[in-house]
C-alpha cells in the first residue's frame, strides 16, 4: 500500500486500523514481535518491581512504551496492541497503588494509565505505518532495480533477435517461469513464433483454452498505440504475478513493443534506402547506356554505311582507315558491355574468385602492351620488385583490374597534358601482401571524394563518370575485394593520383 505525502495524521480511521491489523508482517519478524509483546512487559516488571517505591509512574510508563515500540517495529500493529494491553494491565497491577490489585487509588493515576494505553496504541499504529512505508519503499526499489536491468538489456544491445532473446531469458529467469516464447505479428500470417526460451520451438502456443487443465500461462500483449505488434507467453509452475511483478513486466513489455516498432521502422527505412539507391543506379545506368553505348554503335553504323555506299569510291587506304575505326569502336563497345555485365554480377553476388599463383611481371607486361595499343601517345614506365613478383589472384579478375586502372590513368594523364603513367609492383609490411600501384600525373583526386570514386557512375571533374571508367573503378574494387585484397588511392608526388591495390602473397 502506498502512503500519502506529509506528516503522519493524528487521527487514524477505524477502517484503516483494521486494515493494519490484517496486514501481515514478514513471518519471522511477526513472531519476534509477539515474543517481545508477551515476554517484554513481564520481564520489565520483574526488573522494576523491587524499585517501584522510588520510581515515578511516568518513568515506569515510559519504560513500558519502549517495549511497545520494539514490539510494533518488529511485528507491526498486532504485537504492538498486545504489548500495549499487557503493559496496561501490568502497570496497573504492580506499579499503581494499591499494589497487587486492579483498583486505582488516585485519580491522577487513572489519567496516567489511560494516557499510557492510548499513547501505546497510537505508537503501535504509527510504527506499523512506518514499517509499511519502509517495506513499500524496499519493494519499489527492487521493482525499479529489476525494471532498470531489463531496460538496460534493451538499450545496450542493438536491434535484432539477440536483444529479444536476452530480454526473454531475463524475464523467464527473473520471475521464476519455466519457459517463454515471443510471438511477432506478421502481416497476413497473424502471430508467428519468433523465438522460444526453455522449451522447444512450437511447444508454446499463443492461444489458451480456458477449459483445459493446468495453470493458465501469462499472456502479455505487445502493442504501440492501437497497433498489436506481438505477444509474450510465459509458462511455469509458480504463483500468479503479484501487483509489483505485473507492473514491472507490463513496463518491460511496453518498452519491448517500442523496440519492435523501432526495428520495424528501421527495416522499412533500410529497404526504402536500398530501393532509392537501386533506382538511382538504374537511372544512371540507363543514362549511361543511352549515351555511351550509342556512340560506338553510331560510329560503327556510319562507317559500315559509308563502306557499303556504291556511289562513293574510296582508295584502299581510306577503306583500311574506316575498318580500323570499326574495329576500335567494336572493342570499345565490347568493353562497355563487359563492364555492364561484370557490374551486375558483382552486385548480385554471383561471382567467385578462383585464386592461383600468378606471375605479376607477365600479367603487368601484357596489360601494359594492351594499354599502349589503346593509348598510343601514353608512355608507361614499369618497375617490378622481383621479391614480390608472385601473388595469389584470379587471372581473369587481375587482367580486368589492371586494364581498368591503366585506362583510368591514361585518361587522367591526357587531360592534364602529361603523357606518362607508371606501374610499380612491390611489397607492403610483414603480412606477405603484394602491392601494385598505377601512378598517373593528372589533376589528382580530392581526399574527400576518394571513397565515392569507387561507386558506379560517380561524377567527378577530371575523372569522367561515363559508363566505361565510371564502372571500371567500381568493377576493379569489386574484383579486388573478391580476391581478398584492398584497393585505395594515394597522392602522387608532384601531382596526380596513385591507385594501389594489394593481393595475398603466393601460397597464402
Tell me the Rg in angstroms: 45 Å
Order of helices and strands, N to C? HHHHHHEEEEHHEHEEHEEHEE
Structural class: alpha+beta
Question: What spatial form do the alpha-carbon principal axes imply?
Answer: rod-shaped
Offer a few descriptive terms.
single chain; 508 residues; alpha+beta; Heat Shock Protein 90; 3 domains; five-stranded mixed beta sheet; four-stranded antiparallel beta sheet; 56% helix; 15% strand
Detailed description of the structure:
- This protein is of the alpha+beta class and 508 residues long.
- The protein has three domains: 134 residues, no CATH class; 113 residues, Beta-Lactamase (2-Layer Sandwich), CATH 3.30.450.40; 148 residues, Heat Shock Protein 90 (2-Layer Sandwich), CATH 3.30.565.10.
- Helix content is 56%, strand content 15%.
- Helix 2 packs antiparallel against helix 3, helix 4 packs antiparallel against helix 5 and helix 10 packs antiparallel against helix 11.
- The longest helix is centred in the middle third of the chain and has 66 residues.
- It starts with 13 loop residues before the first helix and ends in a 5-residue tail after the last strand.
- The relative contact order is 0.06.
- The N terminus is likely disordered.
Describe what is shown at a glance.
The chain is an alpha+beta fold and 508 residues long. It contains eleven helices and eleven strands. The chain has helices at residues 14-22, 27-48, 57-75, 77-95, 107-156, 161-174, 243-308, 316-348, 360-374, 395-416, 467-482, and strands at 179-186, 190-197, 218-224, 227-235, 356-359, 379-384, 390-393, 420-428, 433-440, 487-491, 497-503.
Amino acid at each position: 500500500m502506498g502512503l500519502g505525502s506529509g506528516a503522519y495524521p493524528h487521527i487514524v480511521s477505524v477502517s484503516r486500523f483494521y486494515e493494519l491489523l490484517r496486514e501481515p508482517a514478514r513471518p519471522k519478524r511477526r513472531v519476534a514481535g509477539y515474543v517481545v509483546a508477551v515476554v517484554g512487559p513481564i520481564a520489565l516488571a520483574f526488573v522494576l518491581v523491587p524499585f517501584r517505591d522510588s520510581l515515578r509512574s511516568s518513568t515506569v510508563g515510559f519504560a513500558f512504551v519502549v517495549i511497545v515500540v520494539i514490539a510494533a517495529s518488529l511485528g507491526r500493529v498486532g504485537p504492538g496492541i498486545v504489548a500495549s494491553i499487557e503493559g496496561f494491565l501490568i502497570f496497573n497491577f504492580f506499579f499503581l497503588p494499591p499494589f497487587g490489585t486492579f483498583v486505582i487509588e488516585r485519580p491522577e493515576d487513572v489519567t496516567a494509565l489511560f494516557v499510557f494505553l492510548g499513547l501505546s496504541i497510537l505508537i503501535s499504529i504509527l510504527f506499523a505505518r512506518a514499517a509499511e512505508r519502509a517495506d513499500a519503499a524496499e519493494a519499489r526499489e527492487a521493482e525499479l532495480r529489476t525494471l532498470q536491468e531489463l531496460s538496460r538489456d534493451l538499450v545496450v544491445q542493438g536491434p535484432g533477435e539477440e536483444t529479444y532473446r536476452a530480454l526473454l531469458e531475463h524475464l523467464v529467469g527473473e520471475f521464476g517461469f519455466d519457459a517463454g516464447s515471443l510471438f511477432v505479428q506478421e502481416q497476413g500470417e497473424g502471430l508467428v513464433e519468433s523465438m522460444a526460451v526453455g522449451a522447444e520451438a512450437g511447444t508454446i502456443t499463443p492461444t489458451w483454452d480456458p477449459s483445459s487443465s493446468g495453470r493458465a500461462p501469462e499472456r502479455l500483449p505487445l502493442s504501440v498505440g492501437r497497433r498489436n505488434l506481438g505477444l509474450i507467453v510465459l509458462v511455469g509452475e509458480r504463483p500468479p504475478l503479484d501487483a509489483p511483478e505485473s507492473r514491472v513486466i507490463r513496463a518491460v513489455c511496453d518498452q519491448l513493443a517500442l523496440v519492435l516498432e523501432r526495428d520495424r521502422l528501421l527495416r522499412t527505412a533500410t529497404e526504402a534506402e536500398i530501393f532509392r539507391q537501386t533506382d538511382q543506379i538504374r537511372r544512371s545506368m540507363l543514362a549511361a547506356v543511352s549515351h555511351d553505348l550509342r556512340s560506338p554503335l553510331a560510329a560503327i553504323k556510319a562507317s559500315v554505311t559509308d563502306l557499303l555506299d556504291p556511289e562513293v569510291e574510296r582508295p584502299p587506304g581510306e577503306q583500311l582507315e574506316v575498318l580500323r575505326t570499326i574495329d576500335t569502336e567494336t572493342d570499345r563497345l565490347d568493353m562497355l558491355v563487359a563492364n555492364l555485365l561484370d557490374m551486375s554480377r558483382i552486385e548480385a553476388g554471383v561471382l567467385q574468385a578462383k585464386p592461383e599463383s600468378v606471375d605479376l611481371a607477365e600479367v603487368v607486361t601484357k596489360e601494359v602492351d594492351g594499354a599502349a595499343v589503346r593509348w598510343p601517345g601514353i608512355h608507361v614506365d614499369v618497375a617490378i620488385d622481383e621479391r614480390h613478383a608472385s601473388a595469389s589472384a584470379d587471372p581473369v579478375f587481375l587482367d580486368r583490374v589492371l586494364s581498368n586502372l591503366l585506362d583510368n590513368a591514361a585518361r587522367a594523364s591526357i587531360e592534364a597534358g602529361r603523357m606518362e603513367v607508371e606501374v610499380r609492383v612491390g611489397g607492403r609490411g610483414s603480412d606477405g601482401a603484394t602491392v601494385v600501384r598505377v601512378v598517373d600525373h593528372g589533376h589528382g583526386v580530392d581526399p574527400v571524394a576518394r571513397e565515392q570514386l569507387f561507386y558506379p557512375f560517380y561524377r567527378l571533374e577530371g575523372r569522367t563518370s561515363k559508363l566505361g571508367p565510371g564502372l571500371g573503378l567500381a568493377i576493379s574494387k569489386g574484383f579486388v575485394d573478391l580476391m581478398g585484397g584492398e584497393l585505395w588511392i594515394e597522392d602522387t608526388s608532384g601531382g596526380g593520383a596513385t591507385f594501389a591495390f594489394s593481393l595475398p602473397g603466393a601460397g597464402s
